[in-house]
Amino acid sequence: MGLIGIQLVVSLLMASIMQRLAPHCSFARWLICNGSLYRFKHPSEGELCALAGKQIPKNTKRERRQNGVSESKPLTVPKDIDLHLEAAPIKALDALVLRFFLEYQWLIDFAVYAAGVSLFTEGYYCLVDGSKEVNIGAIWCLLTIAFSLKVLFTLMSHYFRSEEGGERSVCLAFGFLTLLIAMLVLVVRDEYLEFGLEPGFANLFDNLEIFLRQQGWEWSVPFTKLTVKLGLAAFCSFIGALLAFPGLRLAQTHLDALKMTSERPMMQILLHASFLSPVIVVLLWVKPITRDFLENAPLAKQSVTLMSSSTFDSVRLWTVVALCALRLAVTRIHLQAYLNLADRWVQQMKREAGRIAAIDIQRKVTRIFCYLTVVTLQYLGPILLMLFSTLLLKSMGDYSWGLYPESPRVTPAVRLAPVVLSPSLDEEGEEIEEDIQATVARVSEALGSLRSVFTPLFYRGLFAFLTWWVAACQLITSLFGVYFHQYLMQS
């Protein structure tokens, strides 16, 4: 197995480019600071006083004395003043006040470069047989998934630290709900949900038993398949809790985006298709609806094969990637719909009676803009999880994109042969070369043994289930969010 090759060189080059270009050229910064998104500026106290028909106070806070105690009284204005917020394009300097901006910039830029490395790896495997090399693109994809989960966990921990609004209860409720759903899904047979978890785990246990016996260890299974599935269900519950607020936020921005594009029917069609894309992903792994129908379609009392099994696998991968690309294409529409909440809140305030402190108006308008990157991470995080899980499913599961003939890769047998070293030579240069060759041989043998234990059959089941589960969690949380914002909030 080759350790150092063109893949590693390209990977190191990409990491160096990412480090040097991040301060000057950032895709994450361009996404929100290229001038296409508009934020609303909060009104000054002078503007509020002018609209209220009063003079600007000399001090920002007026003092009054009651029972010998000096108290500060904030400036208040009527709620029904004719207030109109000023819109301004978001610039790079404005991003300095955004919450979690550094985490957002790092994740999005790393995902872009990881997609580039994965694309190069796929092209490299088209030209060269890379079965004996480490798949560097898969490592980048795995790191992107890990970073996405870490950022989403950071956002969820922010909600857990909040003492207001019951955000902690929402995360726990969705965690327990998805735990029950995951346990139900894991007992469904492969004839209905074709993840391939059962044959994948069976293959893993068999290979692991052979591998450990060759090392001289008496191995017995320390945990049953039921224990493994319970652990997987717990991980699914963790993902469900992470995607709770992203799903609720997606539902809110989707409804607001539909109102914002009420005069653009084609854009509304794209928004509906983007919102319902998890439904298509979920149905792609329901075997009676998709694979069985396409391979044995009833036509004129006969069964006609519309698509072969390998072609269906390729089409399924392309479909998931295309749906992720569709969601990425309408990102700015959702972000602008979120920014418009400031103006909507002001319009709603103007229909109310009473007075409000000027500082409360300024805080509300500013807070909406400050949490822009949080909303962006909640929107893009699930997309990155689904996209890079699909890329891992393709590369680690030995699938094909269907663009070129795929040569079958033979998984090496499970063995670990001892490395025989030649006697040490007198010359110092030859001794160093012998040590390097021995080290490379040991590492290559170890990686080859691990590759024989974790086979493509196991990776197919694992990453297919992960891709499907992310889509299922998005579907559950976003549909509940639509119901919540459409009916519960209005009642």
From TrEMBL:
The keyword Membrane applies. Keywords: Glycoprotein, Membrane, Signal, Transmembrane, Transmembrane helix. It is found in: Membrane. The chain crosses the membrane at residues 137-157, 169-188, 226-248, 269-286, 368-393, 457-484. GO terms for cellular component: membrane. It is a multi-pass membrane protein. Residues 1-28 form the signal peptide. InterPro entries: Transmembrane_161A/B. Pfam families: Tmemb_161AB (PF10268). The keyword RNA-binding does not apply. Coiled coil: none annotated. Belongs to the TMEM161 family. This is Transmembrane protein 161A.
